Amino acid sequence: MNNFQFYNPVRIVFGAGELKQIGSEAAAVGKKALLVSYADYGFMKDTLDKVIAFCKEKGVEVIPFYAAVANPLMSDIEAGVKVARAKKADMVIGCGGGSVMDTAKLIAAGTLYKGDLWKMMYSRHDSNATLPPDKALPILLINTLPATSSEMNCGAVATNTETMEKTYLFHPCIYPKVSILDPELTTSLPAYQTACGVVDSLSHVIEIYFTCQNEVPVQDRLMEGIMSSQMEHVVKILKDPKNVALRGDLMWEVALSWNGWILPGTGGFTPMHMIAHAMSARWGVTHGASLGIVMPAFMKKTWQLNPQRYVQFGQRVFGKKMTPLQVIAKFEKLISGLGVQTRLTQCKDIPANHKKVVKTLLDDCVRVYFGANGKLASLKPLSKKEVKEIIELSL
Hints:
By secondary structure, the protein is α/β, with parallel strands linked by helices. It has 13 helices and eight strands. 47% of the residues lie in helices and 12% in strands. Helix 4 (98-111) links the parallel strand 4 and strand 5 (139-143).
């Protein structure tokens, strides 16, 4: 086990009907909240109206900023910062899924940031040119789509459409003060969004599980339990989408996937996310779907680095002794069985020229995500040739 330090200050308010707590939570922080949600907020209007009403009851003024999109855009974050500054907001509330929560976090940091907001982001992995923020407005989050664990971590992603880069910020100043996890808010989610959220969540655990550098037995069991439970519950939810108890189980399992608990001592990497980010930045592929595409391809290329790990996964997660290739095939079948893409060519707006697709994605990965050593960080750093082969397998 590696040496490590661990910190997570997020307070969780969990349970059906707990949305009503947002007024009291906001009043404990300040007097004027920027409320961030989706640009196409119509399907959430009732929830957003309740948030405004609960806040008003406690004397908190709410400034709506409904502009977030599925893959957060830096241009929207910049617009939100302008509104927050002009209206003198003293907190930011994000109500939505991962894209909304990430947008809210970056607005909260950007409002107090001096200079070009893009400089907050880790936009190049081959140099240390980032100037991260050191403070942010207080952040309160209401999760309506379990997927990213953004409700319980200090991370956020955004896309710069001018440079075609999707990248991230991880910094303690964007930990939310409090996050409300009310499973009633998720019962109307379409099946595809529910499934993509779970695939996204599974990817956070899968990446660490298969790229960790050290044996940490308790972390293995934690990861295996999180994955097994999510796989079991998502199948049940797709058959019984209004089941609040199941939705609640899944909501908490997703929060645990990337809240930091699985990481201590493992020394894991996130190469699958880097390749998937390039797909989302370039063609707007849904984040969960991009990971459903990359994970099987990555596994097919790299399983020989740690075959016993795949055997262990089969035994403990799938409950069966299997070869690594059988494990990969079963996992890929699970993703497709949920209705999520496992091939890039299954997504819309992908150019018909596959050679060009491969070259474009490879160039983006090298430009944005490769380190100073000319490779993509992983259990064994991946060369340009190896990443190209993973992209080809993802088609």
